[in-house]
Amino acid sequence: MTAFKAILIHHLRAMLREKVALCMLLLLAGLLMLLPSSLRDDGSLDGALRLQTQYSMGLATVLVAFMTLWCSASAISADVANKRLQHILSLPLRRSILWLGRWTAVILLSSTLLFISAGVTLFRIHRSVQRYSSQKEAATLLRARHLLFPEARDYDQLAKEFIEIERLKGSVPDEVSDESLMQDALAMAQAQSTSVRGGDSLDWNFQLERPLRGILHIEATFDRSGISARQLPGSWQILDERGQERWASEEQVSGSGQVFIPVDPIPADLTQFTLRYRNLSPDPAQVLFFQPGNGVRLVQPAGSFTWNLLRATLLLCGLLALLAALGMSAGALFSLPVACYVTAMLLLLELASGTLERAVSEGSTLVGDAPNQWVERLDQLTIGTYKLLLPILQPLNIGNPLAQVAEGIWISNRLLWGSLFLRFTPLFCLLALIGILLFSRREVASQS
Amino acid sequence: MSDPILSTEDLGKTFRDFWRRPRARAVDSLSLSLEPGEVYGLLGPNGSGKSTSIKLILGLLHPDKGRIRVFGKSPRDVKVKHRIGYLPEESNLYPYLDARESLRFTAALFGIDPEEREWRITQLLEMVGLSHTGRRRIGEFSKGMARRIGLAQALINDPDLVILDEPTSGLDPLGTRQVKDIIRSLAERGKTVLLSSHLLADVEDVCDRICILYGGIVRAEGPIRELLQVANHLQLQLEDLDPEKRNQLLNLLEDMLGKRPQLEPSRKDLETFFLEVVAKAREDSGEASGTRKEGELAEFLV
Amino acid sequence: MKRGPFLSITRLTLVEIPRQPALLLLSSTLLLLMASLPFLITHSLGETGKLQRDSNLALLFLGSLLLAVPAACGALGSELRKGRIGALLSKPLSRSSFLMAKFLGVAGVLLAFQIMAIQVTIMSDRASAIEFGVGWKFIVPIFVAALLAYVVAALLNFATRRPFVSSAFWLLLLFMSCAFIYTLFLEGGGDGMIDHGGHSHVDPAGVQAIPVRWDLLIAGILLSLAALMLQALALLCALKLPTLPALSLCSGFFLLGLMSDYLLAERAEQMLWAKVLHGILPNWQHFWMADALTGGGSIPLSYLLPATFYALCWAGGILLLAMAFFERMELQA
User: Fold this and answer.
1) CATH superfamily of B6-230+275-285
2) C100, C189, B76, B107: which is closest to A2 by C-alpha?
3) How far apart are the CA of C154 and the nearest CA of chain B, in angstroms?
4) What dotted CATH number matches A197-293?
5) Which C residues 156-175 touch B at CB under 8 Å?
């Protein structure tokens, strides 16, 4: 433990004494203080909040990430280059302790800088609150919301049921196969699941981990058929498992857009329920179309903006810890510039993981057909490589926490702690194991 | 007879290029053994394999063939390193630390208690003559001063085996003398010293046994007295002989031997003369800046 | 200024910098990425050509920045920090000459990368000129050139022990140039529609000639001039700063230069400090002509002259500053 502590403290001091940390601090200060003043927002508190969170804090995260990359890659490779490592390894010090001690020092520095950036961002946001509109608006915007989504519909099953109904009606000849009708049937199923004619109703089923409590809103995003100045009457109901109504409210909608309907009083102790919208218009042609995917969701206040930003920062620190482990492993094997290159390439690959996922799902990287078998083989080889990389990259895909915070969406416990412990920790252990193993086998004394 | 502190059997190391072709044979069939309490010199010209041998002994390089045992164990065993002190050929210390901080860091890696640590550091700094440096950073030290700190680091853990790679490199004659005195004192206290150098005069003064490497192969090995004996040559030293008695002696020897022997005044070596001049100058004018006369060997080095 | 030592330092820099593995890795990655864009850009709704051109030119510019700083720090900074400078300046060579020689050496290596990048941009542009398809015959030579460069460098290393990394870099330049010349003699790209800077048409004959867009050469030269300015700045930074702080500073200048008009143009009309800063900061928008190529536009040759003058003056000013700084520096031998 003494050796670990000595390595940790020493390496922290080494990084602080080098111009790297000073330079990074100056850049961060410049970025966080000057950038918001230079860029113009839309004049609203919401705009200011997004600017500070997504741009200032986002760029600060990128800067700290690059610093982490550099410091981790140089932690061992620099000492190999200047032959200092020969002396250190002649001491009774396990290479694993050296690796872990320096990794801890890098991540401590990076996390500190990231939390300082978050602190400065919060300070500027609270100043913006004073400058912009009312305290009431500030109170709304500076709270994060927890979103509850309904159960996903099984469109394949709905499509099959639809085909069966049409066959029973006699509209589909027997010789036409189900497969050939599937695409159209799926489109019909999706359309029917998100629209409600006059006189009809539409249900969304919810299954929650914890019972409803506190404040609740229904957030609905929709479009109307036709153009009409008249308001469309409708009602919302919450039905429990036995179909009994636990809450109801009638609403009039006009045009298209988004509504927030407070659920008050909230039906307590419900974990499984159905949310029903009934289109009370007598005219079946008056159809309401809800946005596919997130047309209807329940919104609960979850916590303060400050706390949400800090949770996002913690999540980002987890990513930086992985980046540092990657850099350390690369630095244990390669020279500093090559280690930086390898780490940066893997980082960019991670950022492109969405593209890789898409390519794998489409089965090809090509636009159009391959002109010959060689290109086709190359394409298949590329897809194969992507498939190998995806299991490593997918755990790192946590979306954009800062965008979530900017939109006021709560970073859920599942996302935060699940990512940190169930995704990042195993990956870190793997990286650390590989890095330490490679480092242990490496001959650090070059030919003199 | 006790077990050797360090032994190598048929040790070999060849550096290879990317294609695994041999590029340089650094060490070949090296077999040596160090007994407790002796000072063993590893000699050879530049590129003869001295530093490579030391790095193999310390586990920094993997041998291609042969076996190494240090205190009866593999050099890769971390526990073995608690009993070794190493001064590398190039003292690449952290330039932004001062002397105390540097020693403190090394001591912490050995797990030495803070109180004991400070006591040892104070003694070592006095021993190597750097107790006056204060908060000066190592990056500002001269090469000789950096070498002294390196030596202090090598002794902080009171090692049983001290490995010194070119310990007198960059030191002035005074410093060189002091390092040699330290090495002798260490040996007197039962430490084993492995000394690698291409400065023959230094090795001759302190080593009990030597090994001469060339091209990675042992060319000569054994006790220094035996190796340096010249067959059929005797040396006679006389003091305060007046001219008359000198002539009588020469005539007597001429009668006995059949030829007149050569008689020349004894010569000091340059190092001894230099040290005498410096000592006198010190007496006359006081301390010089930079280095000062070191104290005795640190108490904890027993 | 004596020719002997000056040319020797320049030649040594040209030999030394390509030996850095990271330079080869980064150059290769950027070039292959530029070559891959035509078949990686999907769902661009007819904008493939524009996206590919803009991306390639952006990669050329960014790549020059990412290569210039480590090259300058490696060439100059390491000499200063390792103490080799004393031995060099003990020769009959003034400090200013030494600095200029280093600058020219770094510029030479970066010019090699920029030549390759412009060639790849032109070939890649021809490949993406076909809507809903890819002109493979323009892309494949790029990959073949890269593969050949690595293989031949490996063989040279095996047979003659020449350093693999520097051999691969210079062979990449050679083979890429050969690939480019080869593709100049190619005409057809396949069936379908052609995107001529946004105006698509179908060739009833089926196989049509895809012209070479020499405008991209001018666009590339302009960006190379901008990169020259960044190189000068990188050299100034390398006198005092290690690689990462130098890269951060140069990146900061890069970003400020991109936003120069947005940040300062308005304020420059009212405030003196903004006016001065607006004048000093390099304005990269003067060198970014990708938008001019959209819609069938072109870049007039006459634009090159004032752009070159601006770039040389700015870079010259920075180099003079660096020389003045270097003359007064106390060096560790």
Assistant:
1) P-loop containing nucleotide triphosphate hydrolases (3.40.50.300)
2) B107
3) 10
4) 2.60.120.260
5) 157-158, 161, 164
